[in-house]
Design a protein that fits this description.
Rossmann fold; single chain; globular; two-stranded antiparallel ribbon; 7-stranded mixed β-sheet; 12 helices
Amino acid sequence: MNIQELKKVGVEELFKNNIDDAVIKANILLQFVLKMDRTEVIINCENMVNENRIEEYLSYVKEIVNGKPIQYITNNQSFMGLDFYVDENVLIPQPDTELLVEETIKKIRCILGLEENLYKCYNQSEKTKKNNICAHEKRVKRNDEKIKILDLCTGSGAIAVAIENQIEKNNINNVELYASDISELALKIAKKNAFANSKNANIRFIKSDMFENINQKFDIIVSNPPYIERGVIPNLSKEVQNEPHIALDGGVDGLDFYRLIAKEGKNYLQENGFILLEIGYNQKESVSKIFEEYSNIRCLKDLSGNDRVIEVQFCDEGLA
């Protein structure tokens, strides 16, 4: 069987089992098994494939049919232009989460006085709006001050590593990055990704159940916490169900982690500091309500037009 014939078998099997993006996945598997790039596969399409490679390829096709994400087979996922190692111990980074990184970089630039902090606030009181007037000026730091950022529930480390990469690209030197997770296995993967994607790999990793082992204050806390309703998880696609449930399960209503972050977060934020959180497409109202005591609340949409990031600011004067 040659390469072209093997690819056809894979595509047909995936199509038969209603697998999304069958052609793309068949191609990725072929490149992975043959250790070729896309161009090499095309050029050598008539070359014969040995039996061991055929068996390996077809076994991976079967795993995908059974619901295993292709990223856990290739141990790779692209995020913010970087390659991340992923396996069954971590959530697979998704493009929607890139918005969280982009907004964090904007906040860093705002704190450094490099970018104006313009708010389009959601559900604010008049008192909160007045606080907004001076919020930008209050957050600007002196050049010799460090900006401290915590990536809570870091998982694969995608958010923290992508932030560090952007910091390096923009030659920003006065930022301290921390990343925490309850899972020791996840932290090992996050560290692996940090060293693979950064010249300096200066992220400080902390094993912590949320804020349990966090003992300092930050200018920015960023997180993509578990936010799927527990009862919904069994109805998700096979691929998503094969991701770690600890990274998906947000409690009965999907809001447990937001409540905890809202309650405890202000104890770990500098005054006028920010919390940026990924949310589900239908959680804007409920998450905003949870953070209603914070000074500023705004919601940002992803490229698909779905509500995706909630941003809040901690200001003593703005709290009830």
